[in-house]
Write a structure and sequence with these properties.
single chain, alpha+beta, 17 helices, 7-stranded mixed beta sheet, 43 strands, binds zinc ion
Amino acid sequence: MSMLFASTFSDGQYRQPGASEIKLKLKKLNFLGSVLYVAAHPDDENTRAITYLANGRLAATAYLSMTRGDGGQNLIGPEIGELLGVIRTQELLAARRIDGGQQFFTRAIDFGFSKNYQETLEIWGKEEILSDVVQIIRQFKPDVILTRFPPDERAGHGHHTSSAILAQEAFDTSNDPKAFPEQVKTFGLWQVSALYTNTGRWWNQTINESTPGIIAMNVGTYNPLLGESYSEIAAASRTSHKSQGFGSSGSRGDAQEFFEFIKGDKADKEIFEKINTTWTRVKGSEIVQQLVSKVISEFNEENPAHSVPTLLELRRQINLLENSVWKTRKLKEVDQVIIDCIGLYMEVKATNFMVTPGQQVTLSFEVINRSATAISLNKIASKQLSLDSTLSLSLTNNSSHIFRSTKSLNSDAAYSSPYWLKDSHPIGLFTVQDKSLIGKPENDAAMNAEAEFSVQGEKLVIATPIIYKWTDPVRGELMRPVEIVPPVFVNFPERVVVFKDQSPKSISVLVKSASQKKISGNLTLDLPAGWKSEPTTIAFELSKLNEEKTLTFNVVGGKAEVDGIIRAVAEVEGKTYSNSLQQITYDHIPVQTLLPEAKVRALRININKVGSVIGYIKGAGDEIPASLRNLGYEVWEMKNEEVTEANLQRVNAVVLGIRTINTNERIGFIMPTLLKYVERGGTLVVQYNTNNDFEMDKDKIAPYPITLSRDRVTEENSEVRILKPDHPALNYPNKITAKDFDGWVQERGLYFPSAWSNKYDALLSMNDKGEPARNGSLLVGKYGEGHYVYTGLSFFRELPDGVPGAYKLFANLVSLSKQKSLSNEKIKVKK
Ligand SMILES: [Zn+2]
């Protein structure tokens, strides 16, 4: 796998490039052209084009994704919404480390599927996002913009269309001093030379190399210095999108991508044809050009350090040039390639991955020079630790230096948490107070170390994130970023608690220490008006780092129905703390740490249920079990082998997790047992499945014919018309009215059936603006003595979010059988 142009120390994970990769980096010093690829979501980008441009054309190449993909489905775990956006952000960064691109984002939120650009731009806030795109263009200063989509309905998704519209408008305005004038002082103005659309896709499949006006780009060429074709590298890059299941196999041989001219200075054959991509575009660069040619021609793969004197001279000469984007960019590249040629390794580790403000931190430095070049280490520094030490350490060839330094973290250091999630925000636009952060894919490292070297008399500074490293017996050496956190975390185990009446309910809070010292404090719940907790305050003591305790309150809700919030606040030494700790851990991305406010949505709703035990069969992952427990059910999360006729006699209903029929390889063998259970009086609630990738025969998923489709209703406020007001599912044990569809989030539902047997009752009708009525969101069929329910309603989003009406309706669905023919025997539910 190639990681050619990933900056060596950028993520703290050092990888020394081999001589052939260094050679390619030297050649890149000779190319001064840049491309910004623009689309809407993680995965929209054409990784083959990005890989080819970055590694084959050697252009400065970046992908601007409008959103972080917050609104999609997660194929590898339970995270949805903002947490999924955090995962997809990291997947894009992982992809860019492989294909050599840079990554940018606007503040736009992926709020779910949008059928047209008018809706998208209204929800995002068109001027805000245009301002972000213009700022990123003024900062990155691309010669060429490539859009993934056309600016009209052919793009299919409102976000896609909008990304192309915004790219075109930004092309027209980024050089206008009157447009977003507050940015101009920092970033200057910029005129992009040309804009093309990446075509030859579903809206235009007839294009080939000889189509007039179309530029073809062979992205399948082979790079002997890397030992791979660009399509092979691109496949590895694309496979980073694991939460979307986009694993991809490399292909070999010529492969064309097509680009249609839209605006600017039109090229005929090659997108850089009208752009000066040599050093002559930079005034006074004649000597620089000579030195670049010299360093390339004199490169010695057996001894890369031989290039260092020329590279140092090159650096001096570039420094003399007038300021420009190319001066900044090439200086950075030269610094990196000097480090690569020397084989200079530096790593700075902390002894723990969490540090609290004011705490002492011991850093371990490892530095080694792996060449004959004369180097000394003169200074180490860290702003966050007020470390600034002068030394004079001579680094001789291949002799390793390891030393430690202990300092206190500044007491006013800010806590770590993704910058775009720090403040509350409307549904379409993240709130970012500090405008200089706009465009950045992620936070800067919480703690950095800088080292100042002298290389043959020239000063060279390397900044590196401070990391935590350990060795896993199976996976080997692992690392994670060091985060700045409060001394104590308070975590609720649930996101929602439902109070069905005024009987007390126990609410637990986990307190966990992140402090090296013993801490003692008091924990209090901040409750909705009129609610009470017993006791009011609980004292706690945590004697060491990572120690945790669960503290339990008995909470009594008020008489009236309330949709409220319960917060947990810990008081320690006169200071209050209310951050929870949320970590996202997957093998393919660095551990992500979020510190959201500790709160739980508290619903006091008059809600009834029937039955006591629900069986649940996991699909792609959702939080339905926790939601059912909230209603007072015991939930048996059944393994495939536990789905037997005997066991099913012990549950009042069975719920299939989302996409079970798409993801459970054995569902075809279990379904007959489930249908027999229904026939004998049980209830089976099947949540949405996509209409391809079935793990069983399509016509056997239900007792009567049902045809799934891609129909969806994305407007979460769209009117819901009740078609069968007298149906038991809408009346028992809770009366469902139109009001119960208030406050839904993101969407109504997805992948609704488009056709079904008349043995089913379609209970609800709904549609997005301008579309025909969709009546397949909730189908209930009586089969034998029981009920089969198929629903594309987004319960998997609404229940974890605490939407009261969704709880009432779901309670009715699992209560359909009223225990008539089922055993009342109370069973011990296995975990
Ligand atoms: Zn997309």
